[in-house]
Amino acid sequence: MPGRREGAGGTREYNEVMPYRVTLIPGDGIGPEVAEAAVRAVNATGVAIDWERVELTGKIIEESREELPAAVLESVQRTRVGLKGPVTTPIAGGFQSVNVALRKALDLYANVRPVRTLPGLKTRYQDVKIDLIIFRENTEDLYAGLEHEVVKDVVTSLKVITRRASERIARYTFEYARRLGRKRITAVHKANIMKLGDGLFLRCTREVAREYPELEYKELIVDNASMQLVLRPEQFDVLLMPNLYGDIVSDLAAGLVGGLGIVPGANIGEECAVFEAVHGSAPDIAGKGLANPTALMLSAVMMLEHLGEIAAARRLQRAIEKVYREGRRLTPDVGGTASTQQFTDAVVEAVQAGDGGA
Ligand code: NAI
Fold first, then answer.
1. Which of 84, 104, 159, 190 is an active site residue?
2. 325-353 confidence digits (pLDDT tens)
3. In this predicted structure, what is the pLDDT of residue 258?
4. From ligand 1's centre to the CA of 282, what distance in Å?
5. Catalytic one among 198, 247, 322, 324?
6. Catalytic pick among 59, 129, 223, 355
């Protein structure tokens, strides 16, 4: 049926023979397993997507010695939307993180990570409703990758904080919060110690906060914020933080709602957006059919919203929630016995039945 699409690529006329083009980066480790599951779930919604598959793995980077293969960059720059699985980065030595390189090359400055309790899922916090969103600055801080061995056994790692990046992430966060009717934004920092760097980040967030008087604005030091999250996670609404704290606090928050298997994410820039889960390539379970694809499926829900396919996004989200509410076909990380494929079958069936319920 012909119609109009509002979304990532602006507004365009379309019909069923003109699908969206989306770059699919399966990645490595559990990446290909969860990517295949997410593609099946999205395709089940009926939204026509022409998936442009590009390979990006730790092995490719190691062998080619490129920071980022040109084909990957070129594809996302053209399609402007990517769905990405995790990519392995060697620890201490080897190549730079390809994930960080991609975010920087595409200037994907806002990392958005909604952390929500899933219906029916048994966790330590099951009696508490957790519904918070982490906004992580995604391009600088200690991820600038500027490290230097001054003399043998003395290393400096530079933490870069700029007004431009701090204002940009703050504005994105406040705009998002206003649009979604969120109530409270908490800036997380360590400006008591990093007085200049985190001090600048805070100055920028305070300036932006003044333009949004309807949103309550608070600040918390990152160590206290971590404890508060564990003690009373329900008090948090929107959390805004520089890159490193965002990375760490995201995993902590994921642990509150059932683990890394279920927390999605989006990397947003002016031109492009790449949707990926918070989790990494999970080498301990790769290839065993144990991976939970929920996090990438929920990232795909965010992608559908970004494309303007709101009804399909809601359908997929409701289908996932239905499978959790029923609780019969969940993966082992969240207490079930189902394989990646069995869980995916359950979600696809629920999407097709359209009976996700409210
Ligand atoms: P990880 O997130 O891969 O795994 C941590 C733990 O969570 C493991 O026990 C794993 O089995 C479990 N887990 C993660 N995702 C899961 C899922 N979907 N279903 C079930 N269990 C899941 O973190 P780790 O082990 O620190 O990193 C592994 C590799 O991934 C590293 O090379 C790291 O650099 C890379 N990485 C890549 C990211 C990306 O591509 N965006 C993000 C984070 C890490």
1. 190
2. 999 999 999 999 999 999 999 999 999 99
3. 96
4. 4
5. 247
6. 223
Which residue segments constitute the domains of the chain, with CATH numbers given? 1-118+261-358 (3.40.718.10), 124-257 (3.40.718.10)
Task: Tell me which residue has tokens 């985190």.
Answer: 198
Return the DSSP state at 287: T
Task: Let me know if 143 is a catalytic residue.
Answer: yes
Burial class of residue 79 (count of CB atoms within 10 Å of its CB; 0-12, 13-18, 19+): buried
* Predicted local confidence at residue 11, as pLDDT: 46
Hey, which residues does 110 pair with through a beta bridge? Answer: 137, 268
Q: Residue 231 contacts by C-beta under 8 Å, 6 or more apart in sequence?
A: none
Segment 168-217, tens digit of pLDDT: 999 999 999 999 999 999 999 999 999 999 999 999 999 999 999 999 99
Mean pLDDT of the chain: 93
Is 223 a residue of the active site? yes
Q: What is the pTM of this model?
A: 0.94
- Nearest-CA residue for ligand 1 atom 1 is 280
